[in-house]
Amino acid sequence: MRFPLHLFPTLAALLFCTLAALPEALAQRVFWADSGTGDPADIQLVFENCSPSTAPSLPELTEATLNYRGQSSQTQIINFSRTSLVVLSYRLQIRTPGQVTIPSFAVQTNEGELSVPTYTTGSVQPGPEADIKARLTPRKTTVWAGEVFPLVYSIDVARRHFSNFAEAIQWDAAPLVAEDWADPAATESMQSGESRLHIGFATRAYAQAPGALRLNPVRQLVTLNLGLAPGGFGFFQQQRLEQVTLTTNQAELNVQPLPLPAPANYIGAVGDFTLESKVVPQAGTVGEPITWTLTLSGTGNWPDIAGLPPRTVSADFQALQPPAKRKLDDKKLFDGTLTEDVVLIPTRPGTYTLEAFEIHTFDPESGRYQTHHIAETTITVTAAPTAAGSTNVGSPTSVTHSEPSPPPDAAARLSGTAPVLEPPEIAEPPQGLIREPIATGRLARLPADSLGQVATRAAIPFGAVLTTWLALAVRRARKHDPLRPRREALAQVPAAIAALRENQNSAQALLTWQRFAARAHGLAHAAPTVSEFPEGQWRALWADSERALYREKTPLPSDWLARAEAAHASLAKEIPGTAWASAFRKANLLPWLTALALALVVNPHSAHAGDASDRRRGDDPAPNKSGLAPADSALPANANQHAQAAYTAGDFVEAEALWRATIAAQPSDWTARHNLALALAQQDRWAEAAAHATAAFVQNPKSEVTRWNLALAQSKAGYTPAEIAPALGDGLRARFAQLASPSGWDCVIIGGASLVALALLLPLLRAYGLLRRAINPPALVLGICGILLAALALFGRSHYGLAAHPQAALVWRTGTLYSIPTEADITQQSAPLSAGTIGITEKTFLGWVQLRFSNGQTGWTRDTELVRLWTAASDH
Fold first, then answer.
1. Does 326 map to a domain?
2. Is 332 in contact with 180 (CB distance < 8 Å)?
3. Which stretches are transmembrane (predicted)?
4. Could you tell me if 243 and 136 lie in one domain?
5. Is 155 found in the same domain as 182?
6. pTM over 0.90, yes/no
7. Which one of 294, 608, 770, 842 is most buried, by most CB atoms within 10 A?
8. Across all residues in the chain, what is the average pLDDT?
């Protein structure tokens, strides 16, 4: 028997796939290997038939450092055996020559945890890093606990070898508290005829607890220039660059405990401090505040200073203490100022003495505790003035009495002149203050991108009407289909045949078959004759059934059931199915067309109104894809409460930060926009406050509080956006526009369209007989109301201009509009950009935003100059 040659390619392919899959079944392993460069310092960690799932955690080496160089992948196929390799390359850094032993350790791979065996290298020679000296040096080796001392990280390297720093300084300062490293300072010197580069980084630190410390070493990756790489010549020669990790010594530090016992009023401050006191004013009246300010400033362990001890004042004062203000110099932890205010509100007149105030700090230079003393301060409180000639002094013994002056007319009679009575000035309510924040966070709905999107949504009800119309037409076509009774009867014939198959002698089953067979042939009377059936098998079947029913001892022929099934199948092919296309015939569509024509003839004005409404809807764009934001979405837990608490306590910066975070998470939260405007206004940042107040107004113009603060902020900021000017003020048009936001007017437009669609649906249902009552008058009223509602909503929405777009942004301070997103090219075209201008954001690029304005002009400006009215800022 010969082997079929045509199967050879198939078997070869199967053999190749089997051999290629064999390595997957081989054991995986991870091991160290020489890199093959000839330098024992270059080694590789090889993952065979697996790959690392995380970066390997290498063991600590006492006399050497492993520097990661890179990763590569390889695939080897030898004798149909496939091996995949993942190779991590490392270089050993050593200062004294010799072999290096790397102990065994475990690595995590995609095949689970594997063990790496112990590896010993060849004789490794010191690299170029051996010529570099890196040291960590504290300026003082003995310090007090809490004493701030300088710390220097220095590098001494040959000038010709140093290229650059490859990464930032890596240092774990614990247990010290330290500042960031300052920028490096470099000097050069000549040593043994070679130029040396000395680079120093400085910082300051302190130890919180006493004891002997051994500081962690500083590590940093640097790039060295080792000359020209071999193999090139002329301009084709390349520099040979090598990256090495510098590691400093572990400096030792002796931290002394502070002397005991410490004074009672010691506040934990170690360093050079001064304490100042100020009382403003020193003479006041009852009910008016007096502020007592203590200021601690200097250099020391500020992170450990909690605050100043409490002060004692007379019980005749109501004392309020705002949060303390701590200010540290830029990028410095140990130079700062602590200011604590106490607001005293006197309730009784008199002369009071503010008691002396004393604290202690520790001066590390002298090694002693320093006393900071504030002497007593005397303040005088007078009674608050009330009615003319009297003073409200708060106690019966201090009441001052005066003689009552005669009334004006009596004085005039005594002097002989006619009295001159001037009406008093009309008291006006106060103005110029912002209102309080709103407690409950709420979300506004997002408006549509354009009126066209609104029209698309408004067309959905009309689509539903059209679908209903077609469904009713199909229903009518099926109902009036002349062949429907025959199809229904024919569908019952198989069940009758099945019943006869179970019992051929059942007269009831045979009569059932006759009834449905007659109806399937369109024979309506109860007892059709054989001649009424078409010639052929149906006549024979009917005759056999008649004999079986009415002739004694005459059963059905044995093949009758088979012939009945065949006849049924043949008749099923002759009777066509439902003609669904007949739904579009006049007989089925005409009932509603007739009703609609009648309605148009009875009231032709409604047709014109509908056409106008359709044309208007055709020009409107569609709602944006994000849809409507739920109005009851919850804000981040407790965010608004914390912001309210910070605002009430006078910490407006903290309140601003919290409300900005809320807006970043929920940009359509109009209450957060409103509250952020208040926090900015409290800091006299009126221009930005007006922008956020504008966003709150656009999202919820119905709020009286929002309108109040917007008017005040715009008057302080000096601008009013032209796009929303028609919606501002107390005019009739403005009040109408303020009934809903742009998204609210979008919903009204869709609601009006739904009413018009319902007005069309009612005559449709009446024409098809689903409604019995006369519905033309209600449908006409609904149609007119829907058209008016949609038209009024379009009018209200138009008052917001570009502010009704979900990508609208407001320029909150005067700037420049650039043609390209850069300030470097001074030759480009630019134009002034006024505060209060509203545009649509289209593109962003590295902190720049492209705006499109109502006149078609486009340009670029900084994102920091904008406040988005509906969405979150990308970086504000």
1. yes
2. no
3. 743-765, 777-795
4. yes
5. yes
6. no
7. 294
8. 79
